[in-house]
Amino acid sequence: MLLALLRTGFITLLTAALLSTLAVAQTVSLKADAPKRYEVQRGDSLWTIASEFLDDPWMWPQLWQANPQVANPHLLYPGDVIELLDGRAGIRLQPRLRILTLQKPIPFMPLDKVSIFLNRDVMIDRPEFEDALYTVHITGDRTLASKGDKVEVLGDLTEGVTRYGIYRELDAIRDPLTRKHLGFRARALGSARLVNKEGRLPQLEITDSFEEIKVGDRLLPFIDNPFGEGFQPSVPDLPLHGTLLQGLAGQKLISRYQAVMLNVGEDQVQPGALLEIIAPGRRLRNHNTGEVVFAAENRKGTVMVYRVFENTSFALVMNSKEPMQSGDIFRRAEMN
């Protein structure tokens, strides 16, 4: 009797799994210009493939579920062939013979997509900023420096660190609703590499510059890459919500692959967290009739957190249906 019940339960679960897989395949919708075949390239991920070929990139979990031969959705290999099935019912990955000693799997979200942002703007306490290294002289007795120039600095070098970010000014960040002080943002100007620490003053060469650099600008150590070869984005376990504070480049309208600041910190999110950006609902008045109507929430797109601080976090826009802006709200992404 017990064996029969177990067998019946197993069959029920198997049937549900098969029906779920069938439903998944039917819900995947391809773009009209999707090719019949695509070969995975280095730098590809399920997310980027879904963004390119599916009408909705958030269908990537269904894309994986519909292809049980893909054991791990975070591990794709160069040379895997993606075949777009006739009838637009789904996508099937057809892996080629893999020589694992010669090639590494592709991370789900390659680090190079976000690495340029890791040492841009930072949140920092004022005393720590004021105690940091600072430029005291630009070689050639120039007043401004840019990429390729050398600067001399005063202060204590960080042991073992050869790369530094260059920063100026501190902007006080407050929550727009509660007016709570969230910290100070140091604006990034560029980066520099230590080339001589034996002279009267340490000397660094500017390796990148976003703005011209002056005497008095501060230098902070580059953070070590804590993410391995790439991120593995995931939806936070607990519900959360908050406000998009600003675009980190100072732009009013924010689009794909641009960075934003959010009013949640390390106690609520971790790097890789996926969040959905929404234009909040609001009341509008019809100018002709005077009638008050309610405009519903509008889903704008998704972001992935890449760096967290005590009260704030920085995130990268992964996809956007329309530009985002300060004051938009966010919540835990929904995988549907």
UniProtKB/TrEMBL annotation:
UniProt KW keywords: Signal
Domain of life: Bacteria
Signal peptide: 1-25
Matches recorded under Gene3D superfamilies: LysM domain
Domain LysM residues, every copy: 36-84
Name of the protein in question: LysM domain-containing protein
Lineage, broadest ranks: Bacteria, Pseudomonadati, Pseudomonadota, Gammaproteobacteria, Oceanospirillales
Pfam families documented for this protein: LysM (PF01476)
